[in-house]
Amino acid sequence: MNNEKKILLIMVLLSAYALVYFHRTMTGVIKEQIDFFAKYYGFREDLLAAVFFSAYFYSYAFIQPVTGVLLDTYGVKKTCLLFLIGMSISTLIMAIPSPIALIVGRALTGVFASVVFASAQRTASLMLGSNRQATVTGLLLMIGNISTAIGTYPLLLFLKRHGLLELFYLLSLIALIMGIMTYVFSPDKGIKSKGLGLFDVYRGFRKIAKDPHAWAVPIGALGANTVLAFQGGWGQIYFKNLGVDKAEMSIYLMYLALTIAVLIPLLGYLSDTVVKKRKPFLVISNIAVVLSWALAVVILYNNRSDLSLYLVILLGVSFSMHVTAPTMAKEPYGADYAAVSTGFFNVILFTSIAVILQISQLVKPAEMCIISMIIGLIGLTASLLLTRETYK
Predict the structure, then answer these.
(1) Are 190 and 71 in contact (CB under 8 A)?
(2) Does residue 154 have a pLDDT over 80?
(3) What tens digit of pLDDT does each residue of 295-313 get?
(4) Cβ atoms of residues 14 and 120 within 8 Å
(5) At 134, which helix (H) or strand (E)?
(6) What range does the domain containing 238 cover?
(7) Does residue 392 belong to any structural domain of this protein?
(8) Does residue 391 belong to any structural domain of this protein?
(9) 114: closest CA among 146, 139, 90?
(10) 30: how many CB neighbours lie within 10 A of its CB?
(11) Domain count, the chain
(12) Least confident range of 157-166, 291-300, 365-374
């Protein structure tokens, strides 16, 4: 495969991941519409919001082992096409005016969205050297956070002009287009083309599951992903408690996304080509996470909304520093098992995020800051004691 086709394929996967990330984090801005659904159909607002927010993450997490096995066995070409067609359909289900359809569609979207990040990680492992792996992860998370920025204030303007149904129709069409383009550009047909099969990949999965490093990396990454829970769930509740209006809080969340978008590809490149290490980035990420949530508590108790910009920038730094975690999760196990090792990483990480999102809808923001700080301390311990350096 020549360099031009490689670049086109990476661009398609980056675009698909932007769509996935938009689904993941748009929930904070559409909460008003979710609350309207709850009132209209007689549901508890906080309960419907908690289930809706977390449904994506639970399904995304639980399907990861299956997605990883299918990708490594049958390749990106076919698997990504089928899953993105499914994502297009599940997004249309969310457009049905019913809370049940909303939750079912959201959960199915999580199932089908699971293919994109693992596809990108497998493609990078097969086509690029070790000195490009964290850079690709950085680009994925950069484009994801650009789409998150679009899903803040710009999305608020879109919803005022067009509405939620039109948003779902547009997202459905984009998913279908991305699936077709991936099928056209990807040459990957999996290890099935090498005469191996599902059981070979499953054996690889079992080997990964016995390695303490494979467990410690997602636990280490969880501290940084408390920022993701803040972005996609309880960030607006936090700012509301500070007396910040809806438009201003969406702008703060946009600044958070843009901070990550600027920093994360640079840090990925730094890991690949300058420092040539992975572990220090994950350790520093957790230290920054603990400091960030400590600042969040101070701001809340002293009602210092004027410090909100400093908080979102520090949170952005915290998240960006964990750019090496997905690469650490796959590097020890080889390119043929890149998707299944990524799946193992994601099943632990996103199950935990789903739990965090549910908790965040049921406790006070100050309590959530303290919980997030404790998670950062656990992540720091795991990354220091149980992970190993994987750069080769």
Answers:
(1) yes
(2) yes
(3) 999 999 999 988 999 999 9
(4) yes
(5) helix 133-150
(6) 3-385
(7) no
(8) no
(9) 90
(10) 17
(11) 1
(12) 157-166
